[in-house]
Automatic annotation (TrEMBL):
The lineage of its organism: Eukaryota, Sar, Alveolata, Perkinsozoa, Perkinsea. Transmembrane segments: none annotated. It holds the Pfam family PH1_SSRP1-like. It is found in: Nucleus; Chromosome. Keywords: Chromosome, DNA damage, DNA repair, DNA replication, Nucleus, Transcription, Transcription regulation. It comes from Perkinsus olseni (Perkinsus atlanticus). This is FACT complex subunit SSRP1. The keyword DNA damage applies. It comes from the Eukaryota. Residues 309-403 form the Histone chaperone RTT106/FACT complex subunit SPT16-like middle domain. Its main location: nucleus. PANTHER family: FACT COMPLEX SUBUNIT SSRP1. The gene is POB3_1. Belongs to the SSRP1 family. InterPro entries: PH-like_dom_sf (IPR011993), RTT106/SPT16-like_middle_dom (IPR013719), RTT106/SSRP1_HistChap/FACT (IPR050454), SSRP1-like_PH1 (IPR048993), SSRP1/POB3 (IPR000969), SSRP1/POB3_N (IPR035417), SSRP1_DD (IPR024954), SSRP1_sf (IPR038167).
């Protein structure tokens, strides 16, 4: 048996002699790599070997495994084109019959067609790498032949498992409106991931990639936004999205909605095997909370706007949206989604929306983050929200800069450090 142990995580890998199909050796930069192909198609690669190790490793496999350690030639021409072919679960690109690079299908997280002749691959984050190491996260292919481009895309989706999401389907939500990235998608939930299926784009996202979740009622009394923060963004063309924003009709319910979980898990979710008459946003929030193991953040009841809701309408640059002062952070939705933790805020500053001498109906809020030179500017906030926002920010312990010089003449006065005089 051949064994390997990760010195950072302690994770071990054991390979049985009878399961190994072939071994090969090739040089990459100044180091050499040992490639082990298993009979079931799995591939293991171990780097960091030196040229001087070849004879020792070759003799070891010959004596104990009765396998020849073959040397593979690697292309050093520096060409960025070649011929692609499949070797089991690996996509190989060769130049003049020499290996340029190879990609394991299991490393592919997303297959995104960016044009008739282009295919973009997004890769899973390697959890065994050193935190300071750089890793490849995306690669794009240009294929002159449209027919072959379509064929390669379908093969990549099939072999990587990006089409199914992997495992048994837990449940399926149909026709979910998504604001970012915009479109209507069907959402399939699996054991380790969920899949968004749209007309032009599909996304498979692992639950471990979800870093935070927010359930936010909109002040129109009609919609609820469900915001998912992602550690690894999804891409649509050249645009990366670190947040997904789903928007539901507040009154939309689910009927005869089957959930493929055992009784113990359903009890934790506070759901039934078949759900009837429950709000869609509530059911989805409970399922995501269970599958990700993370809490769903809801608006802070300590802040109430003049309309009774927990957010303030404003604009960021040219984008209209809503700023939610939450318990531990500010969240601006919808485009772009901005999440600012209070611990990262250096100071905030209030100012008039214009510099005229007449009273203005609006004011602006600038948020300065630690380590950033330019503030995040939220404009056109209604004057009626000023007192409530000032009081909330002071209670949150956030420093208020230049409040007396804002010219608004409202609210409690404050020193530059944000404390009451």
């Amino acid at each position: 048996m051949l064994g390997w142990r990760n010195r950072h995580t302690g994770q071990t890998t054991q390979l049985n002699k009878e399961d190994i199909a072939s071994v090969s050796w090739y040089k990459v930069s100044k180091e050499c790599t040992l490639k082990i192909v298993m009979k079931n198609g799995d591939i293991y690669k171990y780097g960091g070997f030196q040229d001087s190790n070849y004879e020792t490793v070759k003799a070891f496999f010959k004596k104990h495994y009765e396998l020849d350690l073959n040397k593979e030639k690697v292309s050093t021409r520096g060409w960025c084109w070649g011929e692609s072919s499949w070797s089991g679960p690996e996509l190989e690109l060769k130049n003049a019959d020499q290996m340029a690079f190879e990609i394991q299908a299991t490393d592919i997280a997303q297959v995104v067609p960016t044009g008739k002749n282009e295919v973009a691959l997004e890769f899973h984050v390697d959890d065994t790498r050193d935190p300071d190491d750089e890793s490849l996260v995306e690669m794009r292919f240009f294929i002159p032949n449209e027919e072959y481009a379509s064929k390669l895309k379908d093969e990549l989706i099939q072999k990587s498992g990006a089409a199914s999401g992997g495992g048994t389907t837990i449940c399926q939500f149909l026709n979910i409106p998504i604001v970012l990235p915009r479109g209507h998608y069907d959402l399939d939930m699996f054991r380790s991931s969920f899949k968004l299926r749209g007309k032009s784009f599909d996304y498979t996202i692992k639950y471990m990639n979800v870093s935070r979740m927010f359930m936010l009622p909109k002040p129109d009394s009609v919609h609820v936004s469900f915001v998912l923060g992602l550690d690894q963004p999804v891409r649509q063309g050249n645009t990366a999205y670190s947040f997904l924003v789903m928007q539901y009709d507040k009154e939309r319910e689910v009927d005869d909605f089957a959930i493929n979980l055992d009784d113990e898990e359903l009890e934790k979710c506070k759901l039934q095997k078949v759900v009837n008459g429950e709000k869609l946003y509530a059911v989805m929030g409970q399922l995501f909370k269970h599958m990700t193991g993370k809490n769903v953040v809801t608006p802070c009841q300590d802040f109430k706007a003049s309309n009774g809701y927990n957010c303030v309408r404003c604009s960021h640059k040219a984008n209209d949206g809503f700023l939610y002062p939450l318990k531990k952070s500010f969240l601006f939705v919808n485009k772009p989604v901005m999440w600012i933790r209070y611990d990262d805020v250096l100071a905030v500053e209030f100012s008039r929306a214009d510099s005229g001498f007449t009273q203005t109906r609006y004011f602006d809020l600038k948020i300065y983050r630690k380590g950033e030179g330019q503030p995040h500017d939220f404009q056109q906030m209604d004057r009626s929200e000023y007192n409530g926002l000032i009081e909330f920010i002071q209670k949150a312990g956030i420093r208020i800069r230049n409040l007396e010089g804002s010219g608004l003449g409202l609210g409690k006065r404050s020193r530059d450090d944000g404390s009451s005089p």
